[in-house]
Amino acid sequence: MQYRRLGRTSLELSRIGLGCGNFGGIGSAPELFGSGESEEEAFALMDAAWAAGVNFFDSAASYGGGRSETWIGRWRRERGADVVLSTKVYHSVTGDPDDHGLAHDRVLRELEGSLERLGVNRVPMYLTHEPDPGTPIEETLRALDELIRAGKVEAIGASNVTADQLGEALAASDAHGLARFDWVQNELNLLHPHAQDEVLAICRREGLGFTPFSPLAGGWLTGKYKRGEEYPPDSRMALRPDPERERERDATFDALETFAAEAKRRGTEPSTLAIAWLLAQPDVTAVVVGPRRPEHLRSALAALEIEVSESDRDQLAAVFA
Question: Would you tell me which of 13, 22, 160, 278 could form a disulfide with 36, CB atoms 3.0–4.6 Å apart?
């Protein structure tokens, strides 16, 4: 395993992070609470990741209606494993549509719930899951600053933010003497290779870490989705297709076929090459992967062994540009 420091913090993360969004559900979708991996399956995934040297586990209060955090906490106690925990605040743990956001008191309350489910007194990494248009960023930052000062959170990050939102948050921290975001966690993958260029430019300038999620674009970069074929019944496109409908076009399938041929030429799997492309980005700290089975983790780990040069990065990105 390879490790890299998260921005300017003292945290050392494995370059492959275990995304726990399918533990007991499919992300934060209330209608799918209780779906996804069972507790036994989640334990098997965490065992495999820990055995491989993965020390960075990523969750959220709302994943699986709290099941993800609860199972991670139970696994940690049973295994005595000291992992770097990352969790998020925004969505409701119970699925209540009126209970969401980043208001000051809600952030403080939600962190207490996460600490209880995880069975810890402090989380190393705490993220805003998405921006809250109804709450001034200064208010949210004051809450996060209080949590850091209280020793309940070590580093704070922002997920699903635009470059403008990130810039506004950093300016507010500087103007009011509040804690600053230490890293960003946005979606980045080869299907849209330049989607985060502006955010990454800010991360580079400000010394922030970057931990991309959805490196396989919901399964599109694994080769499982074929032109003219039905989607596998347990796939993201079968369970939650609506967010991905824009990808169902000939240009996408053309690019995927070219990419699969390139992976074959290199003697590897498309999923492995897609993750290797991300790991080769100089601004990427660690890649959050969400394997559904322990054997799926192998392709992510294999990416650590693949050399991707700067010219390789550009050529692969050009396939999907």
Answer: 22
Tokens read off for 59: 């969750």
Q: Domain range holding 52?
A: 3-320
Taking the complete model, does pTM exceed 0.85, yes or no? yes
pLDDT by 10-residue block (mean), the chain, 321 residues: 97 98 93 93 98 98 97 97 97 95 98 98 98 98 98 98 98 98 98 96 98 94 80 62 65 92 95 97 97 93 96 95 82
Q: Collapse the DSSP code of 3 into the 3-class scheme (helix H, G, I; strand E, B; otherwise coil) and give the result.
A: strand
Catalytic residue among 63, 90, 126, 225: 63
Please state whether beta strands 287-289 and 209-210 pair in parallel, antiparallel, or not at all (unpaired): unpaired
12-14 and 3-5 strand pairing: antiparallel
Distance separating alpha carbons of residues 184 and 203, to the nearest angstrom: 8
Q: How many domains does the chain have?
A: 1
Q: Is 63 a catalytic residue?
A: yes
